Amino acid sequence: MKNIILAVILGLTIAACPLLYFLVGPQLTEEQLRIGLVLLYIVGGSFLYCFVVGELTRNNSQMDKLWSILPIAYTWVIAGMGGMTPRLIIMAILATLWGVRLTFNFGRKGAYKIKFWEGEEDYRWVYLRSQKIFQPRWKWMLFNFFFISLYQNLIVLLITIPALASVGSEAELNWLDFLAIGLFVGSLLLETIADEQQNKFQTAKRKMIKEGKKLEELPDPYNKGFNTLGLWNHSRHPNYLGEQMVWISFYVFSMAAGVGYFNWTAIGALLLVILFLGSSTFGEGISGSKYPEYAEYKKKVSRYIPWIPYRKKNPAKP
Predict the structure, then answer these.
(1) pTM of the model
(2) CA-CA-CA-CA torsion for 27, 32, 37, 43, nearest 10 degrees?
C-alpha cells in the first residue's frame, strides 16, 4: 500500500511540474533558455550512456556514479554562460564541494574503476532486479529506461535549476544568500558526519565477520547488523536528511535572486524529497527482512528528524 501511495504522489507531482512553470513562473528568459539548451544536451548524453551501458554491462549504477558529478558540470556551465556573477560562482563552488564529498564517499565503496562502466553496483538495484515483478527481462529494461536513466537524470538537472533561474538577476547578494550558504554548509556537514559514522560502523562490522565471527557473535551494537551509533542513534537516515536540505537550501538562492519566494524551481527539491521517501522505504524493507531488531529501531527513531534516542548505554568496542 505504501508503494502505491508513493507512486500516486510521484505521478501527481510530475504532472504538476509543467503547471508550476506556466502558472507560478517566472518563465525563462531567452538567455536562460539558451543555457538550458546546453544543459539538455548534457542530460541527453548522460541518459543515453546510463541506459545503453547499464543494459550492456548489467550494472545499473551508471547514474549513481554520475549523480555527484553532473551538478558540478551544470552549475559551472550556468555560471560560465551566465556571466560569472558572485551568486552563480558561490552556487557553483557549493555544488562542487557537495559533489567532491559524495564522489569520495561513493568511490571508497568500490563504485569507480579505471573502466568507468565497471565497479560495485548498488545493492538495491541487485535486489530489485531479482524480484518477480521485473521478470521477464524486458520489464527491467523499461524500468532502467524510464526511472534509472531518464527520470533520475532529469531530477539531477532540476535540483540545479535555481542557478539557471538566477541568471540575469540584478539583485545584489543579500541576507537570503547568506541564509542559503549557511543551510547548505550545515547540511553538507551533517551528511558528511553521517556517512563517516556509517562507514566506520560497516568497516568494523565487516572486519569482524571477515575474521570468522558470525553476526550474532559480534559485540553490541554490531550484532544488530545496522548502525545505531552517533547520528544514527537519533535518525534512521541522517545522511538523507542532509542531502535533501542541501538542495532545499539551493532553492533559497533563487529567492535571493528575486525569482520569487515561491517559484517553479522548487520542483527539483520537491521531486528529490519524494525520491528519498521512496528510496528510504525500499531500503528499510530490505533491512527489516535481514535484521530482526530493525522493526524496533523504526518504532523508536524517526525517519529523518532527530527524535528519541534508540540507545542509552555505551556500546562495546570491537
Answers:
(1) 0.90
(2) -90
Instruction: Write the CB contacts of 215 (distance below 8 Å, at least 6 apart in sequence).
Output: 209, 222, 223, 225
d(CA 4, CA 31): 40
Confidence grade of residue 8 (pLDDT, cut at 50, 70, 90): low
The CA angle 137-140-146, to the nearest 5 degrees, is: 145
Q: Return the amino acid letter for 129.
A: R
- Alpha-carbon distance of 200 to 227, in angstroms, equals 10
pLDDT in tens, 70-115: 999 999 999 999 999 999 999 999 999 999 999 999 998 888 888 8
Residue identified by cell 524486458 is: 138
